[in-house]
Amino acid sequence: MSIQDFNFQDPIDIQSAGRDVAAKSFVSRVFSWMFAGLMITAVVAYLFASVPSLNASMYVQDPSTGLPAGFTGLGWFAVFAPLGLVLLMGYGMNKLSAMAMAGAFILYSFLMGMSMSVVFLVYLPSSIYKVFFITAAMFGTMAVLGYTTKTDLTKMGSFLYMALFGVIIASLINFFTHSAQLDYILSFVCVAIFTGLTAYKMQKIRQMGEQIGLNADDTVGKMAIFGALSLYLSFVNLFMALLRIMGNRR
C-alpha cells in the first residue's frame, strides 16, 4: 500500500470546517435569544392591550373614540427606558456578567412589549398578523443572504447607518410638523434601511462566530445576547415601518 492510498485532509479545509461549525453554533445562540425576546414582546404587548387594568396603567383613553390619547407615567417610562437598557448593554458589556446581560435583554423585551401594545389598539388584528408574516419573510431572506454572501457588506452597512441617522433627524423634525406625507415617505426609507441592515448585521454575526470558535465562556454568551439585540431591533423597526405602510387602522 502506497502513501497515495491514504486520504489526507487539507489542514485549510479542516480550519474552514471548524469556522463553519463555530459560526453556526454562535448564530444559533443569537437567534435563540432573538426569538425569545420577540416572543416576550408579543405576549406582553397583547396582554397590555387586552387586559383592561393593564391597558389603563399604560394609556389615557379618549372617551369619544376609546383609543389611546396619551401615555400615563408608566407608559412614558416604558417608552424611554428601553433606550437606557440598550446603552447599558452596549457600553457596559465588558463589565456586565452574562446573567446580567440576559436579565437586561429580557427586561428590554418586556418593556418593548408594553410600549408596543398600542399596535393592537390602533391596527386591526388581521393587518398585524399579515404584516408580521411579511416582515418575517423579508427578514429571513435578508438574514440568509447576509450569512451566505461572499461580498463584503461593510461599505453598505456604513452607508445605511448614515441614512438611518438622517431618518432619525427627519423624524424628530416631523414630530413637530406632523406631516403625514413625510411620515409615509420615511416609512418606505426605513423599510429599505432595515432590510439592508439585516443582511449587514447577519454577516457581522457570522464573522464574529468564526472568530470566537466554539468557546462557551461568559464573553461569548454576552456577545450572543448583544447580537440578538441587534437583530431584534432590525426586525421590530422593519415590522413597524411596514405596518405604517400596509396596516389597516381600526
What does this 3D model show about the protein?
- By secondary structure, the chain is mainly alpha-helical.
- The protein has one domain (8-246).
- Helices cover 80% and strands 3% of the residues.
- The protein has a two-stranded antiparallel ribbon.
- How many individual domains? 1
Strand content: under 5%
Return the average pLDDT rounded to an integer: 87
Profile the largest sheet: 2 strands, antiparallel
Shape summary:
globular
Poorly predicted tracts of residues: none
The Cα radius of gyration reads: 21 Å
**Distinct helical segment count:** 9
Class by SSE composition: mainly alpha
Order of helices and strands: HHEEHHHHHHH
Helix content: over 70%
What is the terminal separation in angstroms? Answer: 79 Å
Question: How would you write the strand order of the largest sheet?
Answer: 1-2
DSSP strand count: 2
